[in-house]
Amino acid sequence: MSTLTLSPSFTPVRRPAPIRLTRRGRLVVLAVCLLAALTVSIVVGGQSVATRDAGTPVPTRTVVVGAGDTLWEIASDVAAPGEVRAMVHRIEKLNALEGAGLQVGQELAIPLG
């Protein structure tokens, strides 16, 4: 039979208590995580997809929008028959318009042909 003797200097191993965050601490951790995610998205997603090659210049003329003018009327003046809808789209894209709404005095670049 054997006996186990403990030395008087023996102390049991204590595990540290788990970290508990206060509400403010959780908000700080959340803010840091969101800031890190924003930084990563800017670095990764902020790169241009454009090439270094120059694009083909589009010959245009400038038209000043008058009272009662519509994008459809302006496009029909320069478009071939049956191509008005495509010309409206080209004018919107060329001038970075979000829709067909125009304002009096607005200058539009209109593609020729």
UniProtKB/TrEMBL annotation:
Chain ranges of the LysM domain: 62-111
Recorded superkingdom: Bacteria
Gene3D superfamilies: LysM domain
Pfam assignment, any one: LysM
Name this protein carries in UniProt: LysM repeat protein
Species this chain originates from: Nocardioides massiliensis
